[in-house]
Amino acid sequence: MKLYDYILSPSCYKIRLMAAILGVKLDIRPVDFHPGAEHRGPELLALNPAGSIPILEDGDLVLTESSAILAYLAALSGPEWLGGSAPQETARLQQWLSFSHRLTANLGGARLHQMLLRPGNIEAMQAQGVEALRELEAGLFEQRLRGMRFLVSERATIADIACFPYVALAPDGGISLDPYPNIRLWLRAIRSLEGFIEMPGIHRLHELKPDPHPAGLEK
Amino acid sequence: MKLYDYILSPSCYKIRLMAAILGVKLDIRPVDFHPGAEHRGPELLALNPAGSIPILEDGDLVLTESSAILAYLAALSGPEWLGGSAPQETARLQQWLSFSHRLTANLGGARLHQMLLRPGNIEAMQAQGVEALRELEAGLFEQRLRGMRFLVSERATIADIACFPYVALAPDGGISLDPYPNIRLWLRAIRSLEGFIEMPGIHRLHELKPDPHPAGLEK
């Protein structure tokens, strides 16, 4: 299974993260997204005329939407990541997958503007990003009232993976996460998942127990 | 089940169409989207801070993304509309649901610009709309080679319903459907579905058999 990937892309990281958690081995094909704009070159446009990455190839199947790739990996290797079949769960999963597309536009747009000087109305993207974070905070608060730590149920699903990277990297776009305690708890819960991997800007949880052999005190 | 609805909104029509096909009764609450901008008023912003419609309320559950509402109605009343559980089908369903969000931006954006003078770069939206239609045409052609008339399998799913209205209304945004034979066959296949309902600009298939009692020839 081949992933056309860019290390700094939150959307590509969603796929690497899901695969790592599920134990799926990916054949990573790095794309020179910046500065080379290879995703807009002939080889990749033939695979994905929309000119975006990630792209997953598995035999004849070509998937170009991160939500679809997450669903595919889960269906293959961990169907419990697709949520339960109760109508409310099915609906919540789709609700947050759709929401994740808006995060790409607002939080992702603000980040590209700040990091790569991508043109765009930064104030508008930041304002929409803050609105989206408030919505996410309210959704997670409601889930907490139901005794659930994740967006769809008491366990993580592809909806959590789909929303996680752009939220975790919101500060790169000049948007603070300080006002959102439920979001910060949720980010920690995802970073605690078995099999979690990092990307630049998103790190493992710090070890909270003191180092028994701190370097400065040796001998 | 209450739907906050606007008769001219393709996204609201998705929900009315799915409900009609499934035989689900909706309590329709018309929203004065234009010119009143009621979706941006206090009552609706309290339900959906993103300020968009459709909104579906069912008891405690509030859904604000059309893909999520389609999934909810299908899970309640016609799970076969969610596609099969084979990983490739799960993936294709999500691929086209994600694609439908892009249609809202490009074909929908062009239509709002032409019909309601909504600001925006009309040339860019039309160019992206044409790119999306080419992608859809190619996807439907591949499906036809597999012997399938619809986007995900040989029967229609929520992905077809999600993509249908903005495509059918593309000419409202100044984008012709003439170059896309597979799209035109697919539009006819959806318009032939049992329970199909119209919206302004999207009509039932004409009866092809001659009227046995044409008015002019009576008596």
From TrEMBL, chains A, B:
A single MF term (Gene Ontology)? transferase activity
Transferase keyword on record = yes
In its keyword annotation, does this UniProt entry include Transferase?
Answer: yes
Q: Where is the GST N-terminal domain?
A: 1-81
Q: Domain GST C-terminal spans what residues?
A: 86-212
Q: Sorted alphabetically, which InterPro entries does this protein's record hold?
A: Glutathione-S-Trfase_C-like (IPR010987), Glutathione-S-Trfase_C_sf (IPR036282), Glutathione_S-Trfase (IPR040079), Glutathione_S-Trfase_N (IPR004045), Thioredoxin-like_sf (IPR036249)
SUPFAM superfamilies in UniProt: GST C-terminal domain-like, Thioredoxin-like
Keywords per UniProt: Transferase
Name the chain's protein.
Glutathione S-transferase
Q: What's the source species for this entry?
A: Rhizobium sophoriradicis
Its lineage reads: Bacteria, Pseudomonadati, Pseudomonadota, Alphaproteobacteria, Hyphomicrobiales
